[in-house]
Amino acid sequence: MNSEQSNTPKHVAIIMDGNGRWATQRNKYRTTGHKAGVESVRRTIKQASKIGIKYLTLFAFSSENWSRPQKEVSRLMELFTRALKKEVPELHENGVKLRFIGDLERFSEGLRKRMEHVSDLTSNNNKMTLTIAINYGGRWDIINAAKQICAQVEKNQLTVNQIDEKVFEQFLCTTDISHPDLLIRTGGEQRISNFLLWQLAYSELYFTEVLWPDFDGNCLNDAILDFQQRERRFGKTSKQIKEQKNA
Length: 247
Ligand code: IPE
Ligand code: IPE
Ligand code: MG
Prior knowledge:
Helices cover 44% and strands 15% of the residues. The chain is built from eight helices and six strands, in the order βααβαβαβααββαα.
């Protein structure tokens, strides 16, 4: 599959859910599920890059996930730190540009520096942009943008009348990437859980019962095939879309 020829979504975002249930089903600790989930991340990145997805955005840790038991949170942070060290060389070699979105202030200086280093190191890569959403919340993103806009208005760098969708978007943390074409959520829940609230306005939603540690390249292909059957109308009529295609 090639993204230009076959209507492969340019940007795929994934809510990677179901690690805990996967482990519980096996009488294992939830953290075993998170560890298995790292393998799914690796498989998914490989397949996404192979089929020509340009932007892959993964929801790794939400602003609400801090409310989990302290032990689970620490283990998730450990796994994230370790994966950063271990996986980056290969990602860099494969032309993946890495970026991190979310309120990164909450992390230790060491981890923040590491994320900065990885972003700088891979900044010129152009095979695929991999965005990791960590301590991310859609509401936080919107409020953060609103605050920056207010600051600019206060300094007379922007007028209230100049604020429109285009201007607003420049202050969101996804400013340099297109909106997701396809959102996948694994684990069977059918909700957004405070992921990219603004950016998902017109994304196609795909929910699968598959638990994240079981997700693989074939599951990604299934989601994309489903996406390719959809008609994205953006408020227009089906007739208009067909005419547009044939023009
Ligand atoms: C997703 O799996 C991983 C994170 C939210 C960090 P869960 O840990 O939410 O797994 P379930 O939903 O409890 O099965
Ligand atoms: C969403 O999963 C967040 C991530 C996958 C990182 P949750 O498991 O936290 O979502 P809820 O609590 O079921 O809505
Ligand atoms: Mg969950």
